[in-house]
Amino acid sequence: MHVGVDVGGTNTDAVIIDGDSVLAWIKTPTTADVSSGIVTALSAVLSDSKVSTDAITGVMIGTTHFTNAFVEGKRLLKVGVLRIGLPAGRDLPPMIDWPARLKEAVNGHCAMVHGGNEFDGREISPLNEKEILQAARDMRAKGLKAIAISSIFSLINPKMEERAEEIIRNELPDARITLSSSIGRIGLIERENAAIMNASLADLSVQVVSSFRQALRTLDIKAPFYVSQNDGTLMSADFVERYPVLTFASGPTNSMRGAAFLSGVKTALVADIGGTTTDIGMLSGGIPRESSVTVDIGGVRTNFRMPDILAIGLGGGSIVREDGDITVGPDSVGFRLTEESLIFGGKTATASDIAVAAGHADFGDASLVASLDSAYVRRASDAIHTKLEEGVDRMKTSAEPVPLILVGGGAVLISQDIAGASQVIRPDYSSVANAIGAAIAHIGGEVDKVVAYEEQGRDAALSGVKAEAVARAASAGADPHTIEITDVEEIPLSYIPGGAVRVRVRAEGALLHA
What is the pTM of this model? Predict the structure, then answer.
């Protein structure tokens, strides 16, 4: 029996699932201390389901805390950055393209030293350990506790990053060190950015995970807990303390997987409609389509795995204005919906007010919007649907209609057919699809590397990478008997000798002893 929890900026959702059955669910306000909100949500579903805490085999938690902290530039550590690669890359130092606000919040010290590798593992230049030692001493003098280490093509050969970590740890034994080879993909700048982002969250990750642990202790839940990654798979608690950046965008991914589970439809568009935004993504075979381009987080480019999501300014709290034409959003009253919207006695017209006035949603006090002009309500409702239709059209890859699954608390805004959708599906429990997606998630392992097909042969090279992905999933806690390869991508690298091909393989399996 699994428990799924999604800790959002506004609400904390929780569900208890037994196999394919949802036994209980709840949506409660998120609390500032995180822990008490989780306790409230879990207490409610345990009480409603009459499930004993001893019967729970796993708790799966999704959270937006780390994404929000980085985008807002709050509670971040100053980071010491070491790049191995000179003489290459001298004119593009670390954090060169970061927004000034985030760079000021995170940049503690940047050093570039000689070393690095070519795509085939050959050295660019020998690793200069004296330069690394000096950089470590400079970082220690500045009192830095978080370090990010990157090296050119370290995904091919991580030994220089690992040796640099040893040298720095001798000088800074208590430092939280992130190696870029453990997080990102091929592409130095973006991979380095991901490592810096991760290092800046080192303290917050410990605090948040501790809050999760405390919540479970309070309820005497002894089952292991896991945290959702941005590819829809799970990390152990210890792993997320080391790599909090891998939770970025896990919320929309959980919602999409939850949508596939609830609807039984594996290939469809999914619109997760919240209080402020609607996240639209594409399911293919039950798995969210992955972004094929560099992903921007708060203005910083990264290249770790992320779902292909379009966020539009449409939600239950979206502000409705009439100035000739009617506009909906992109600004929203957000978590202040119960204070500022008309149906709760406020003075701001929102998309929720329109849904209630139109008669296809029932919450708040409908009498407070009964006097709204019917033509105005109809035009505003049409504007809401048009905005979603535009988002659907942008995410489709062909003109052919595809199913559209609506999830999230704001799904009540949609009452009409949507152009471009072959059907609009509103599954049961759709308002907590994110928590359900967390509850059903698997453990995953991914490998992204360059191999030479001419040297090894394609079959042998692919088999080796697949075996490595399976081993990573197993070491992360997946049952070896359930692990399957879920994605294989081969990208030939032009103008590089040896038949070089970038290969990405992902494997997933059910939780061991779940």
Answer: 0.78
